[in-house]
Amino acid sequence: MNLASQRAGWSRLPLRAAAFVVLTCVAILGVSGWREWAARDQVLKGAETEMANVARSLIQHAEDSLDLVDSGVVGVVSRLEMDGADPATIAKLRNLLEARKKAMDRVHSLAIIDDQGNWLTSPGTIASTLSDDSFFRYHQLSPKREAYVGRPVKSLVDGEWVITLSRRFNKPDGSFGGVVLAAIGSRYLSHFYEQFEIGRNSSVTLVYGDGMIIARNPNNDKFVGRNVGDTPLFRDASLQRPSGAYHFKSPLDGAERVSFFKRSGRYPLVLLATVDKDELLAPWRAAAVSRMLYVVALVMLIAVIGAVLVRQLQRGQRMAAALVEKEAHFRLLAEGSSDMVTRIGLDERLRYVSPSSSRVVGWRPNQLIGTDALAGIHPDDRPHVQAIVDAMKRGEMDEARLTYRNVHRQKSEVWLESTMRVTRKDNGNVDGVVAISRDITEQKQLESRLETLAIEDSLTGLANRRRFDERLKEEWARAYRERSSVGLLMIDVDHFKSYNDEYGHPAGDACLRVVAKVIAAEVQRAGDLAARYGGEEFAMLLPNTDAAGCARVGERIRSAVHDAGLVHASSPASCVTVSVGGAACRPAFERTAGMGALVEAADRALYAAKDGGRDRLMMSGEVANLLPRASGQ
C-alpha cells in the first residue's frame, strides 16, 4: 500500500511540476508588468515634479515682473499727487517713463491717464479715450489705492496683447485724478519661457484668473487672448486649490498632457506648465518593450526547461532545489543594502567589491578588485584613513567609522562614510578589514549650505553681523601683527522709516537690496568685506586701508546710491540716499584701542554725517588722534 501511495504521488508530480512552471511564468510576467507600470508611474511623477518646479519658478517670475513694474508706478503716483498733473510735471514724467521703459525690457508701455480717460502721456499719438476700459472704471469707482491687474487686452499702440497693472492717483482734494498704467507684453513673457527646455511638445502658459491666456510658449501669437475658462482647471471644484498636478487633454492642440498648475497668491494669475504625455512616455515605452522582450524570452526559456523537468522529474527536482538556492542568493544580493561592501587584505589590496560600487564610486567590481584600497582617497584625507587602517591591522582597533573624500569616475569627487571592522582567522589573528561605504555627498552639501546661511544675510546676500564681527576680529589681529591699518565704513539709509511707511515693506526690502548691491560692487579685494550691520545700516571692512582710502570708497558708495535714482518723495533729495561714516586705525600704534573703538569712531562719524544734513560722508579723522595712545598721551 505504501508503494501504491508512493506511485500515486509520483504520478501527480509532473502535473504539479507543470503547474509550478506555469505559475512561475505567470508570476514573472505579473511582477515584470507591475514593475513596468510602476516605472511608468514614476516617469509621470517625475514629470509632475519637474513641471511643479517650472510652474513655481515662472509664477514667481510673473509676480516679480509685476512687482518691479508696480514699484515704478508707485513712484509716478507719488510724484503726481505731490506735484500735480500740470503740463510741466507731465513733461518731466514723460521723460522718466520713457527712460524706465528702455531700462526694463519687460515693460511694454507706461502711461498716465487723466480723470476723463484721456492720455496725458503715451508712446504715440492715440486719439481714443480709455473712460470705458475696465481698469479705468475700477479706479474711478473704487477709492482703493492698491494695484489693479487687468485682463489681457490688445495694446492701442502696436496691437500686441499685454497685461496691465494700474494704480489710481488723487487730486489734492482727494477726488479721483486719473490712472497710472503699466503694461507687460505677451511676447516678452513668451520669449522668457523659451529658456525652459522641458520637451519638444511641451508648453508653458500664463493664464488670467478667468481663463484668458496671457502668454504661451510655443505658438504664443496663435493662442494669446483665447479663453479657456470652460476647462476643468477653472470649473472643477477639486482643482480650485493653490497648486497641483493636472492631467488633461488640451483644448488648444488636442494633445494628452501631464501638467502642474500654480496660482499666484497675490495676483489673478495661473501658470500651467505641461509636457506631452506621449512624448514623455516614449522612452519608457521603448525601454519597457525591450525589457519585456527579455522577460518573455526568459519565460519561454523557463517553459522549455519546465517541459524537460516534467519529463525528467527526479533530475528536475534536484535542479529545482539548486535553482531555489541560487534564487535565495540572488535575492539576498538584490534586496540587500545598496551600500558598497569591500574587503581589504593585509596588503591593503581590495579582495572583494560589491556590485553597488558602480553607483557609489562609478567603477565596476572587476575594475577595483586587486587595486590599492586607499588609492582614490583625497590626499588631504588619506593620512587619517591610513592611520586608522594601520591600527586595525595591528589589532589595536576592531571597528571604526570615518568620513573622507573619494574620487568618483563620473563626478569629480564624492564624500563617503565608511564603517570598518576587522576580520580574524580561527586563531584570532587579523586577516583583513571589511568596509561598508555609503555616499553622503548630498548631506555634506547641505551642511555646507547651512554654514553659508549662518554667515550670510538672507535679504541682501551680504555677510551678516556674526560674520562681520568674526572678520573684524581676524583683520584687527592681522593688522596688529603686520603693523598695517584697518579701515571701516558705517553706512545708513537716510529716512528709511519714512520710505517704508510711504512705499511699504516689500519696497523697503527692494531698496535695501539695491543699496547692498552698490556696496558689494566696491568689494575690490579678497580681504574686503561688505556686511549688513542691522536694519538699514551696513558696514564695510577695508583691511590695509588708511583714512584717505576709506574716504574714497565711502564717497563712491554715497554717490552710487544717490545716482541709482530710487524715488523717495519724502527725502529732500527726492531719492534714496545714504549717510556714511568712516574711520581708520593702526592697531600696532594704538595698543590701548580695541575693535570696539574703531566701530565707535566710525559710528560717531556716521551720526555726524546725519547731523550735518545726511547724504554725505564724514570721516572721524585719523583715529590715532582720537584714541588714547599706549604712552598715555
From TrEMBL:
Residue ranges of domain PAS in the record: 326-396
Pfam families listed in its UniProt record: dCache_1_like, GGDEF, PAS_3
NCBIfam families assigned to the protein according to its UniProt record, in alphabetical order: GGDEF, sensory_box
EC top class named in words: transferase
Keywords: Membrane, Transmembrane, Transmembrane helix
Entries under SUPFAM superfamilies matching the protein: Nucleotide cyclase, PYP-like sensor domain (PAS domain)
Domain GGDEF residues, every copy: 484-622
InterPro entries: Diguanylate_Cyclase, GGDEF_dom, His-kinase-like_sensor, Nucleotide_cyclase, PAC, PAS, PAS-assoc_C, PAS-like_dom_sf
Protein name: diguanylate cyclase
EC number: 2.7.7.65
Residue ranges of the TM segments: 292-310
PAC domain segment(s): 400-452
Classification lineage: Bacteria, Pseudomonadati, Pseudomonadota, Alphaproteobacteria, Hyphomicrobiales
Catalytic activity: 2 GTP = 3',3'-c-di-GMP + 2 diphosphate
